[in-house]
Amino acid sequence: MKFQFESAADFISMSGHGPYVWASYAITAVCLAYLVVSPLLKRRSLMAEIKRQSRIAERNAELQGTSR
Amino acid sequence: MSSHEQQVRTSLKSEPLVSPGIGAGFMATFRRDLLIAFRHRGEMANPIMFLLMVITMVPLGISPERAVLSVLAPGMIWVVALLATLLSLDGLFRADYEDGALEQLLMSPQPLYFQVLAKVLVHWLVTGLPLTIMAPLLGVMLSLPAAGFWPLVFSLFLGTACLSLIGAIGAALTVALRKGGLLISLIIMPLYVPILIFGSSAVSSAIDGFPFGGQMAVLGAFLAMAVVLAPVAAAGALRISVNG
Amino acid sequence: MGWQWFHRLGSPRWFYEKTNAWIPWLAVISISLLVTGAVWGLAFAPEDFKQGNSYRIIYIHVPSAFLALAGYYTMAISGAIGLIWKMKLADMVMKSAAPIGAVLTFVALVTGAVWGKPTWGTWWVWDARITSMLVLFFLYLGVIALQEAYQHQDTANKASAILALVGTVNIPIIYKSVDWWYTLHQPATIKFTSESTIDPSMLYPLLMMVTGFYVFYALVLLMSTRSEILVREKKTRWVKDLATQ
Fold it and tell me: Of the candidates C142, C154, C169, which has its C-beta nearest B186's C-beta?
């Protein structure tokens, strides 16, 4: 097990293949991150919606209580 | 109670309602659909006209040179036949769904498998078979080499039947949707890949002077499999999309 | 014991609460496997003598291609369970699996194309595997499109389950046909990778990445299913309590 490259710059360029390798790793990272983030966002917006609706329901109940 | 009424009652009792056998049920649907298709003869011609027009676009869009066209011909005719079938599929169950006949069909004691099979058979008779018969003309238009004509007709004969059967699944899945047309193409086209590959390759091998029996056998196998499985899936899909 | 766990799966709430504790574990395991595997593959695995460093894309291309196919089967099997046993949870798993699988197929396609540029000198080759992968991508898109088209969620699930099952029957046929088609048109070209002859020093990071992708898949499928559960059960007491607490 040894580091295969001479230097950090060599590691980045990968003897000319760097752009391809790094681009595909970057695209993959973005896609995987999307897979993790999208259910979290969905959950968050749902929770906000439920909270808002319960607040509206509470306020309606209060208004009805005062008007009577 | 009048004697006439009594007579009716006894006759009802003595002859319980018998549902016709599978064969009779199949034939009834077959005959009905064929009749409907022939009453709308204009619609029947649509896929063929589509095929002709698209084939006319090919030389206009690419090149009128015989050498170029003859290379493209087998694949082009197959692709356009596939598209024509896809476009006609939307109507397979649509009219019956809209006038409620489809629900009657679902409720009838007839096995849905054979009812679907009858409908698909009619669909093939009014689209796939005319396409197959038209194919030599298209071959002439695209200067298909002479060796390719019979393989083209045979492969389309087997292949369009597969296309109708598999397409019935897509038509059944989308029958309840208002905009089913484009969706059918999206969900069904990937499933058409094997048929397209073997169909057009049969023609091009024949043109190159190779045997094409193998491809025909594979197409036949696809057809056998599609006859057995596709109506089952389409029947299940119909139950779901109609009943919700 | 016996089948009790299976019947409990009928309750989305039970599943939601049960799997709460799994998420951090799966996240830690998958991220550590993926990061270690990627660093190992990028920096410490030896260079391929034929393809040079561009072969390092294999460490994400092959695992995502595996998962793209396995994801389709996951989707179809859970769809079948939903159809047969009318299990709500299975429907939700199927609905969540479709976009995840599509994204992984997309990753496999893009990395394959990027890998093709230095290897074959072109971004796109109608190679058998890439073409099959593209058809698989279309199959996923079809399921997603059908799922989106229906207003009624239950019908959408059943319809897309049928489509997924039909696709499952077709996938082996499509793969074999495309393979055959490819041999017909290009009798001898570069073989992409031959896993059997790969050197152990290159293989171990690959195995690590494959395992990492599988665990990652389980993680995102679970997360997605859990938020799907919340969406479907948003009218119930326990979800409201969860939101307002």
Answer: C142
d(CA B215, CA B199) in angstroms, rounded, equals 7
Phi-psi region of B110 (alpha: psi -120 to 50; beta: other; left: phi over 0): beta
Q: Which residues contact B148 (CB under 8 A, 6 or more apart)?
A: B73, B74, B139, B203, B204, B206, B207
Write the DSSP symbol of residue C46. P
* C222: contact with A, CB 8 A cutoff: no
pLDDT tens digits, A10-57: 777 777 777 888 888 999 999 999 999 999 999 999 989 888 988 898
Q: Flag if C230 and A21 touch (Cβ within 8 Å).
A: no
Contact yes or no for A39 and C223 at CB 8 A: yes
Task: Identify whether the C-beta of residue C242 lies closer than 8 Å to the C-beta of residue C78.
Answer: no
Closest CA to B51 of B133, B121, B171: B133
> pLDDT tens across B163-206, in order?
999 999 999 999 988 877 789 999 999 999 999 999 999 998 89
Compute the distance between CA of residue B16 and CA of residue B174 in angstroms, rounded to an integer.
Answer: 38
Residues B65-75 pLDDT 10s: 888 888 888 88
**Nearest chain C Cα distance for residue A1, angstroms:** 6
Q: Do C224 and A2 touch (CB under 8 A)?
A: no
This model of the complex carries an ipTM of 0.85
Task: Number of B to C CB contacts under 8 A, please give it.
Answer: 73
- Cα angle vertex C169, ends C163, C174, to 5°? 105
